[in-house]
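Q: For a teaching handout, I want to show students what a protein-ligand complex looks like in C-alpha cell form. Below are the inputs, and the small molecule is magnesium ion. Please produce the holo structure.
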Amino acid sequence: MYHIISIRDFERKDLDYLLDRAEEFETGRYPPGLLEGKLVALLFFEPSTRTRMSFAAALARLGGQSISLDSVEASSIVKGETLADTIRVVSGYVDAIVLRHPREGAARLATEFASVPVINAGDGAGQHPSQTLLDLYTIRKSMPLDGINVGLLGDLRYGRTAHSLALALSLYGVTLHTIAPGGLEMPVNITLKLRERGVEVVEHASVEEVIRELDVLYVTRIQRERFPDTASYYNVASSYRITTQLLEGVRDNLMILHPLPRAGEIDPAVDRTPYARYFEQARNGVPVRMALLHEVMR
Amino acid sequence: MSKKDTARGLLVSPIRNGTVIDHITAGEALNVLRILGITGSTTECLSIATNVESRRLGKKDIVKIENRELRKEEVDRIALLAPQARINIIRDYQVVEKKGVEIPRILKGVVRCPNPGCITNTNEPVESTFEVLDKGLHCLYCDWLIKDDIANHII
Ligand SMILES: Nc1ncnc2c1ncn2[C@@H]1O[C@H](COP(=O)(O)OP(=O)(O)OP(=O)(O)O)[C@@H](O)[C@H]1O
Ligand SMILES: [Mg+2]
Ligand SMILES: [Zn+2]
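A: Here is the structure, written as C-alpha cells, with magnesium ion included.
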C-alpha cells in the first residue's frame, strides 16, 4: 500500500514523477471521472482551511467524494478514542484517508493501523509533504529546479515548510540562502544534513544583502508567540518585511512564494508586482493533491 | 569456578546458574539493571560491583544475576550504555557462554522520545521506535534526534 507521509521518503525520481503527474492534471490531460466511486475521509484534528479545501477540491475534480470530520467531532474523538482506533474504524468506511493531526508522527502511526492509504496533510510541527510538493511544483513551472538560488526567509527554526522544502531542494543541487532573525535560525542538524547532501548553505544577515541574487524567495511566517513581548516581535517582523522598495534591481525571474496565511511579512503592495506568486502557489495545491490522491488510489 | 578467579578471588560469592555482565562502563551498572527491568521489587538475586579495577577499562562495573539467562534483545539494550560489556552465561558455576553486546539497528520501546509533541508520548498503542545512527538515535515517528545522554531517555 502506498502512503504519503514525509518528503524524506522520496527520492528525486519520485518527486519528478509526482510533479509530472500534477502537470498533467493541471493541463487537463486526464480522463474524466478517474476517481469516480472512490470515497476519501478528510480527518482534520486541527483547523486548516486551505489544505482541507484543496484536498476536497482535488478529489471532486477527479469525480471522487469525501466525508469529513468537523472540529467538534474531532475534539470528542481526541478525548475519548485513540487515533489508532479512529483510523482502524474509518479505514472500513473509505478508500483513502487524508490526515491532519497536532502530534508529530501521527501520520506514520496511522499507516500502522490503516487498511487504506494515508496521506499526511500535516502532523504538528512535523511533516506536510503536499505543501512541499506544491512549492516545488510552483517553482518548476517557471524554471528548472537544478542549480537555482533559493532564499529562505523568516522563522527557519520552527518553520516546517522551510525545512522540508530545503530537504527536497537538496536533491536538485540548489544553493540555499538563509535569512532568519536571531534565535530563529535554521537548526544545525538540518543545515548539516543539507551540507552532507552537497548543498551550499549561505547565511545572510539581511534580505537586502542577497535578494538580487535570488531566483526564488520563500517567505515564511514569523510567529508572535516566539517573542517575549509584542514590541520585540514588531521590531523583528518589520525588519524582515518584503516591500516594493526592496525589490529594486532583483532578477526578472524572481518569484516570491509564501505558504500562506501571511501575517505582515509581505506588504500587500508587493501583490501587484510580477514577482508575487503566492496566490498561484496556493492554486497549485489542487493539481498537486489530485496527483497524490490518484497515486494512492490507482 | 575457574582457577584464575580462585586465585584473584571473587568480589562476591559465586553463582551456580545465571548471568554475569562484565566489563560494564564504570558507573553504568544501575542503568544496566534499569533497562533490564530489574528494580528493587523484582525477585532476582543480584550482586553489583561498581568501580572495580580492570586491566582493560581502568575501572568497570559488574552485575551478576542468579537464575536468569539474558535474552538477545535484553543484551542488545545494554550495548547503548556499555558497548564493551561482555555477557557470561554461568551454568553449574562454569562460564559456558561468553558474548559481546551489539547495538541493534532499531530500538523498540527502549527509549522515550524527548519531543513532547511526539505521537509516541500519548496513550496511543505504539512503542517508541528509534533507528540507531552514528550521530545518535533517530525517532521514526517524529524525526527527533537524541545525540547524547541516552541513559536519561531509557524507559
Ligand atoms: N560461578 C561464577 N559466579 C560468579 N561470577 C563468576 C562465576 N564464574 C565466572 N564469574 C565471573 O564472570 C566473569 C567472566 O569469567 P571468566 O572466567 O571468563 O573471566 P575472564 O577470563 O577474565 O573473562 P574476560 O576476558 O571476559 O574478562 C568474571 O568477572 C568472573 O569473575
Ligand atoms: Mg576479566
Ligand atoms: Zn518522536
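A: Two things your students might notice: Residues 72-81 of chain B form the longest helix (10 residues). Chain B touches chain A at residues 115, 117-120, 122-126, 139-145 (CB under 8 Å).
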